[in-house]
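Regression check, iron/sulfur cluster case 228:
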Amino acid sequence: MTSQNEMVTIFVMGEAFKVPVGSTIMTALEYAGFQLTTGVGCREGFCGACGTVYREKGDYRIRGGLACQTVVSDGMYLAQVPFMPAEKPSYDIEELTPDVEAIKKVYPEVFRCVACNTCTKICPQDIQVMDYIQSMMRGDIAKAADISFDCIRCGLCAMRCPAEIVQYDAASMVRRLYGRYLAKPTPHLDSRVKEIEEGRFDKDLDDLQTISSEDLKKRYYAREIKTK
Ligand code: SF4
Ligand code: SF4
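Current build output:
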């Protein structure tokens, strides 16, 4: 049981709530009685659904983080960002080349980057966001794809960008370009796809769709786990 002196006060959209010390923003919101139906996903820091902006007591800065990972502090003001509205251009990957021309054509706003580094500072994944944008400006698709690999598309970088660049969408395109044109051939993947197409796993898949949940759980926990 949590005692009163183990509580902190947070403000959600201006309304005060007492919540346990050490709570994440997400658990604090639920403790305060909010039923989260949007802005919540995996709860483990992987899906990027729970971007939140907040201001801490006595600090003039607006900060951002994932609600499932960020711990509350006394006097914190917060607001959730259910999603980041963004204009998403469509493109045909077969009509692009893995170089700066693709960036110019699909995401010309990337060249508005003023190198302020605000995006890197807010990224909850500690990704060097500005560096991948700068790599795109140089046409270095492989480097931009590599640096942005851990992006979870939370949208916080785009929200703070003074040049109004949607970094994570541009990063998705460069990773697709990398996969389509620059990644080394993967013969093992080709042979596995061929096996699937030839129906090698059809019986196993049919089997899995018909067994009971209990049997499915038993098989899951008894599966062979490769450690190397
Ligand atoms: S790069 Fe942007 S969208 Fe991706 S995880 Fe970082 S802040 Fe979120
Ligand atoms: S916030 Fe925008 S302008 Fe600033 S470094 Fe990042 S991409 Fe460039």
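Comparison notes: The pocket of iron/sulfur cluster (ligand 2) is lined by residues 113-119, 129-130, 133, 160-163, 165, 167 (CB under 6 Å). The beta strands are 7-12, 15-20, 51-55, 63-66, 76-80. No diff flagged against the previous build.
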